[in-house]
Amino acid sequence: MAFEPPERLVRALAETSDDGDAAWRERLPGLVEEALGACGAAPERVHAPGGRSSVVVLVRLADDVPAVLKLAPPSAAPQAEALALERWEGWGACRLLDRPAPGALLLERLRPDVSLRSLAQAKALLEAADTLRKLWVEPPAENGLPTVAERTAAQAATLEAAPGMYRPLVDAALAARTALLAGPPEELLLHGAYGQGKVLAGDRAPWLAVGPSPVTGERAYDLARLGLDRVEDLVGADTGGSTSRRRLSRLADSLDVDRERLHAWTVFRAVYGGVAALRRGQRAMGEALLEYAGWL
């Protein structure tokens, strides 16, 4: 197979200053061949546009079973994803079939082009909440996963360095994080990056989660990311503010999550996401997230 990494991944790797990721990018064609050989898989095609933190190759195993070979750089912590998938054992998430090489995961093949984003918003949120509920379990015994406090510490440092024009929102986000971490009520396994685009159609179950960036902590942190989905549509609507607040309330009630904690984590994740997007040059998304945070 003539291998070319997806352009989205190439751009994302170019934005990072991580030397390990740069070295991984240079070695990627050889890493793909090594992993294919280790699991005895025949490649079909590279999934595009793919994500910003991994390359996904659609493959066939020796018994003609379709599967997915996923390779990620060191910064994406593929070993953490493997821990989470092993803990879920296919319950609410795709199955991990093998770890054929360092940084490589052999996964159950879902329908990579059909996510919850293909559904109407109300139906998508209902299905997303039902799937997310299944993922909230006790962390794996071999728990080398970061906590929410650890994950958000670097994000808080980024916010501290944000330009002064965003200071009111940044200060509100940082204050919310401090208050939330003063007494975290839960220590569960969380997806960490859950959104409608991370839930794909499957055969053994209608919808299954993929692409976790797992952490341990409280459910409100995980649910906050789902509350940010399709934020560009909300910002473009005349009733975006009231719709956003109602959406969070419905999500909290449907999953028995504290409304105030969900609201606070959503503010933090929206402000951090907005500042990070602006730093990457994604002005429209950054401004949409910050406007959303302002409504809350």
From TrEMBL:
The residue stretches assigned to a coiled coil in this entry are none
Sorted keywords for this record are: Kinase, Transferase
What protein name is recorded for this chain?
Kinase
Give one GO molecular function term: phosphotransferase activity, alcohol group as acceptor
Q: Does the keyword Cell division apply?
A: no
Q: Name one GO biological process term.
A: secondary metabolic process
Q: Which domain of life is it from?
A: Bacteria
Note the InterPro entries from the entry: Kinase-like_dom_sf, NH2Glyco/OHUrea_AB-resist_kin
